[in-house]
Design a protein that fits this description.
The protein has one domain. Helices cover 79% and strands 7% of the residues. The protein has two helices and two strands; from the N terminus they run αββα. The radius of gyration is 17 Å and the shape is rod-shaped.
């Protein structure tokens, strides 16, 4: 029974962390994580720049 509770807690926290990473928004706390969102935006811009460089070669 304890093992089941540990597995459930682990799945919950991994899922929550993944959703915060993907959306930049913590739905459980209801607080926008703007720094995380900005970091994701910066990564997206970096990926776009790399793709443009590859296409221009």
């Amino acid at each position: 029974m304890i093992e089941l509770a540990l597995v459930a807690a682990t799945v919950y926290f991994v899922h929550r962390s993944w959703s915060v990473y993907k959306t930049g928004y913590d739905k459980v706390k209801g607080v926008a994580k703007k720094a995380t969102y900005r970091e994701q935006e910066a990564l997206t811009q970096e990926e776009l720049r790399k793709l443009k460089q590859l296409l221009n070669q």
